[in-house]
Description:
Blueprint: H1 5-13, E1 21-24, H2 28-34, H3 39-42, H4 46-60, E2 64-68, H5 70-74, H6 89-105, E3 110-116, H7 118-123, H8 130-144, E4 148-152, H9 163-175, E5 179-183, E6 194-196, E7 206-210, H10 220-230
Parallel strand pairs: 1-7, 2-3, 3-4, 4-5, 6-7
Helix pairs in contact: 2-4, 4-6, 8-9
Amino acid sequence: MTVSPKARAQAIATGRGGGQTLAIPLALRLAARINERALDAFFADPTQLANGLGDLYEAVRPDGVVVTLPEVVAADLAATDPADLARGVRCGCALEATRRLRQTLGDAAALTAVLPGPASLAARWGVADPGTVIVALMREFLGAGVDVVVFVESETADLARFAGALSTAANMARFHRAVAALIGPPAAGLGTPTVVAVGRPAPATGLVVTDGEVPPDTSVVLVRDWLATVRSTRSTPYPGLARM
């Protein structure tokens, strides 16, 4: 019996995902290119965003579609109170698109929010209380229906002072049976995705993402090949389960 991507995400989130694969290319800008939309309008119009991600899904049939990325979220910081970031234009667009995609795609794709981690919010974007921001973002995106949340940090980020906020984020995801993971240094309660380069695909299991965002000029065939290769094994347990 085929297990839906949403069900696989729930299995991974609850520690029952050994051998399951959830292959998600970080292809938000590729979706804009497929839909022939300018990025500014694409990230600010929920109809364009939902339609573009729907077209990406039809083109490559990934296990999940990414509704936002760290730079997209951070673009709202200049115009929005960080404590109320979810009400920013781009965040609000991503949240509304998530709600629409949940209706149109159902369980066929794991909806995924890729968010800036607290250390990068503080160091790169000067947010004074990044722990509060990431918890607020988790609340909004989980409420909208995402199945996977991935925080992104540099490998050298010091997460010790954000341990409480990250633990809260992990508990919120667990309550919703959603996967919570972090690209960067290990963090208690958060899984570690397997990162596989789009140009050098290899079989993998668990939550698998591309090595950064897929460039918008990437061939759709290359993304399909990446997905096919990543999914070609079911033998290795999910590397983040021990910490989830």
